[in-house]
Amino acid sequence: MDYYFISNYSYHSPANRKCAEMQEYAKQWEHTLLNGQIALDAFWREIQNKASELDDKYPRTKKLAFSNDIDNRVIRCLLKHDGCNSDLDKTVFNLTINKVKRLYHFSENNQLIP
Q: Taking Cα atoms as reference points, which of 99, 70, 73 lies closest to residue 3?
C-alpha cells in the first residue's frame, strides 16, 4: 500500500477574500498522511470542489485554476488570467505531495515494513 504525505504549504499574499478562503482551506491539509491512491484522488477532488464552491460564491472574481505536476506531485492553485499570457496568473498556494518511502513500527526485532 502506498502512502502520501502533504507538506510544504506555501502561499502568497491573498489578492481577495476568495484567495484568503482558499488558502485557509488548503492550509488545514498540511502535514496530512493519505492512505493510498484512492485517498490521494479523493483529496484532489475535494480541493477542486472547494475551488468550484468559491468560484460560485464570488462570481465577479477570476476563476481558480490548478497546475498539477503529477511527476513531482505539486499542486499549484492560481487565479487564472483571461487570455493566453500565463505571466499574469497569480499564485494562491502551493502544496507538495510526497510518496512515503517507508513506515517504521516499533517491535522487538526493529524491522522496517516495506
A: 99
